[in-house]
Write a structure and sequence with these properties.
- About 55% of the residues lie in helices and about 0% in strands.
- The two termini are about 35 Å apart.
- The longest helix has about 35 residues.
- It has a domain of about 35 residues.
- It is mainly α and about 300 residues long.
- A two-stranded antiparallel sheet has the order 1-2.
- It is built from 12 helices and 2 strands, in the order H-H-E-E-H-H-H-H-H-H-H-H-H-H.
- Helix 1 packs antiparallel against helix 2, helix 3 packs across helix 6 and helix 10 packs across helix 12.
Length: about 300
């Protein structure tokens, strides 16, 4: 994010209005529209969720992971389940236990069934667990709502405005559905709005990653993290960075030959697709970072070394 404008950057209009009003009125300066610098996440140590920049997909992943861990670290009942659900982007539920069986397998005769000798005890235990389900569901809802607040408060005001304009926002907010909120934020961070043409969105994402390069002064690890965020965004939207069918065919034939076969089978093709995909990704990492100062002066991430060495 950009720094807070220096005192006096907005001319005379900064005056008694204080720092927040600098650049306003008649002396409106070049930094007047930089609202990002004025907004800080109220959750200490967590970045702000935004959209519209190539770095935002990786920032989303970082913030989402931190907020999931924040929920887990509370130690409250239902918190671990909510954290795991956030990491997997699934809606958590409290499972209702199955009743005990009337019959069990005879320990002395495999395949033979006998009446369950502990049916009465098992039934009492099962009934006790079933009675706890509503209480567990209530605690789970408390943690889901708390996670929703964390995510919402981490959003930049411009992102909140964008989210409120979505057709399903009112339902998401009424349900305090943190999973759906996260999916919508991720889509916006990746440039994939629900109202956009999906093919056009994919073209935008591919253009974003092809033109993204490591700037001088940017660490290798930071560059790799941001690049990976855009790459993940492409895959999450159902796309791929590049397809090279002839390379895949050649690699599949190579795998078959190494196994003493003349023709490649489906397993060879599948393995070749994975290998070529990883090499293409690593090659992009290397190509767009090798000219930076950090590339020459820092330890290079494994992915970049692999691409360089072939």
């Amino acid at each position: 994010m950009s720094a807070v404008p220096a005192r006096g950057a907005g001319g005379r209009a900064g005056g008694r209005g204080g720092r927040e009003n600098q650049g306003g009125g008649r002396g409106r300066g070049p930094n007047a529209n930089r609202t990002s610098s004025a907004f800080k996440n109220p959750i200490n140590g967590v970045k702000v969720l935004e959209y519209g920049d190539p770095t935002h997909p990786s920032i989303f992943e970082e913030v989402w992971e931190k907020l999931a861990n924040r929920r887990r670290q509370t130690g409250a009942e239902g918190a671990p389940e909510v954290a795991a659900a956030m990491e997997q982007f699934i809606t958590p539920v409290v499972p209702v236990p199955d009743p005990p069986p009337d019959q069990i397998e005879d320990p002395n005769n495999a395949g033979q069934l006998i009446p369950n000798p502990n049916l009465r005890r098992d039934t009492l235990l099962w009934e006790g667990r079933v009675k706890m389900v509503p209480q567990l569901e209530q605690k789970l809802q408390v943690q889901l709502k708390a996670a929703y607040v964390d995510v919402w408060e981490s959003c930049h005001p411009k992102l909140k405005t964008k989210l409120k304009a979505l057709p399903n926002y009112e339902q998401i907010d009424a349900d305090k559905d943190v999973i759906q909120l996260g999916l919508q934020i991720r889509a916006l961070a990746c440039g994939a709005e629900s109202t956009k043409n999906k093919v056009y969105t994919m073209v935008q994402l591919n253009r974003m990653i092809i033109t993204f390069y490591q700037k001088n002064g940017q660490s290798n690890s930071d560059y790799l993290k941001q690049f990976q965020g855009i790459y993940n965004a492409i895959e999450q939207q159902g796309g791929t960075l590049c397809t090279m069918p002839r390379l895949v065919e050649a690699r599949a034939r190579q795998l078959a030959a190494e196994d003493g076969r003349n023709d490649a089978n489906d397993d060879d093709v599948a393995a070749a697709e994975v290998a070529v995909k990883e090499e293409i990704k690593a090659a992009y990492f290397f190509e767009w970072s090798k000219s930076s100062d950090a590339w020459r002066s820092e330890a290079q991430p494994r992915e970049l070394v692999r691409a360089r060495e072939g």
